[in-house]
From TrEMBL:
It comes from Streptomyces endophyticus. Residues 154-266 form the DUF4352 domain. The keyword Phosphoprotein does not apply. Coiled coil: none annotated. The keyword Transmembrane applies. InterPro entries: DUF4352 (IPR029051), Immunoprotect_excell_Ig-like (IPR029050). This is DUF4352 domain-containing protein. Residues 1-23, 119-149 are annotated as: Disordered. Residues 132-143 have a biased composition (Basic and acidic residues). Keywords: Membrane, Signal, Transmembrane, Transmembrane helix. It holds the Pfam family DUF4352.
Length: 273
């Protein structure tokens, strides 16, 4: 008995579905964060007192925005526009932070200056200063009226300035600033430093005017008088300088103005000739 031979059948293999690549998830977080922080930073910068917050958020938004743009260029993110907006807002927040810091610090500085000015007004106070050891008067000279010879001005830091009466003298033939026919006068200016800090005399200026018209009296440069103060005056010490001024022969008065420095008001003495 013969077996029935079956024809060869091809071997079948299992069928698998074609491989599908998983879609890449967009990494948009940094761009979105940059936009949010940039908006908050820019709004904070509109309030000068919040300049510090605007500056911090602006820097972070700038960094995140630039990083988000880099991801978008590499195809890792899809919100390039949002990242760019966050970057721009970060820069704006930083600019507002700088402006706010300047405004705040300037306002504080102005307020401190106003407080200091109200506490220690540099307007001079008048004393009866013919004797430097005499009691100091707290009264200020009347507005528009100069001091008399020998009077002293005591400033709020206890710096005292006094001017003596004018005394005639004869300049040498080599003196500068003296005009023939005019009279030469010596005036002694004394600075007493009773403050706690040394006083720099390099900024002290002394000027004079003569006559009823207030014509400038030229300073005489001669070996009998000095050009001005030099060096510093230590606390508790004093310095004296004799100035020479030239005035017309018919002048009846010599007005001397002394300004210790830019931090002090100038004071005037009306000296009878």
């Amino acid at each position: 008995m013969s077996q029935t031979q079956q024809p060869n059948q091809p071997q079948q293999h299992p069928q698998y579905p074609p491989f599908q690549q998983q879609p890449r998830v967009a990494r948009n977080g940094l761009g979105t964060a940059a936009l949010i922080l940039g908006v908050i930073g820019a709004l904070s910068g509109l309030i000068p007192l919040l300049f510090w917050l605007a500056g911090i958020l602006g820097v972070i938004a700038l960094i995140l925005g630039l990083t988000g743009r880099g991801r978008a260029k590499r195809g890792e993110a899809t919100n390039k526009g949002i990242a760019l907006t966050g970057t721009i807002l970060g820069l704006a927040a930083m600019g507002l932070a700088i402006f706010g810091a300047y405004t705040t610090f300037k306002a504080v500085d102005d307020a401190v200056d106003e407080i200091n000015k109200s506490v220690s007004d540099t307007k001079a106070k008048s004393t009866s200063g013919k004797d430097s050891g005499a009691d100091k008067s707290e009264d200020k000279p009347a507005d528009g009226k100069p001091l008399a010879a020998g009077d002293s001005i005591v400033y709020d830091d206890d710096l005292t300035v006094s001017v003596s009466n004018a005394v005639t003298f004869s300049p040498s033939e080599y003196a500068a600033g003296h005009k023939n026919g005019n009279h030469a006068y010596k005036v002694t200016v004394t600075v007493i430093n009773d403050s706690k800090e040394k006083f720099d005399t390099s900024l002290l200026t002394t000027n004079a005017r003569s006559g009823k018209d207030g014509v400038k009296a030229e300073q005489i440069i001669d070996d009998k008088v000095a050009m001005g103060f030099e060096g510093t005056v230590l606390p508790g010490k004093k310095a004296t300088v004799v100035y020479g001024f030239d005035a017309p022969a018919d002048a009846k008065n010599l007005t001397v103005e002394v300004t210790p420095s830019f931090d002090y008001d100038g004071s005037q003495w009306d000296l009878k000739l």
